[in-house]
Amino acid sequence: xxxxxVKIYTSVDFFKSELLRQVLVDHNIEAILINKQGFPYRIxxxxxxxHEGDFQNALEIIIKNDL
Length: 67
Known about the structure:
By secondary structure, the protein is α+β, with helices and mostly antiparallel strands. It has one domain (5-64): 2-Layer Sandwich (Alpha-Beta Plaits). 34% of the residues lie in helices and 27% in strands. The chain is built from two helices and three strands, in the order βαββα. The protein has a three-stranded antiparallel sheet, with helices on one face. The longest helix has 13 residues, at 14-26.
């Protein structure tokens, strides 16, 4: 992972992570998923990363939208 990215969210639910990523993107915050779940059993976590400069804004969006 390149410097300047921070993890804002971790879940075992891929769809919750993707929903959060999409909400952030809809608010003009670049966000990416790192899927660490093993195939075929889907054991592990999915992480959402954003640029560190967007952290406070992203946190406010997460709280406001109860995500």
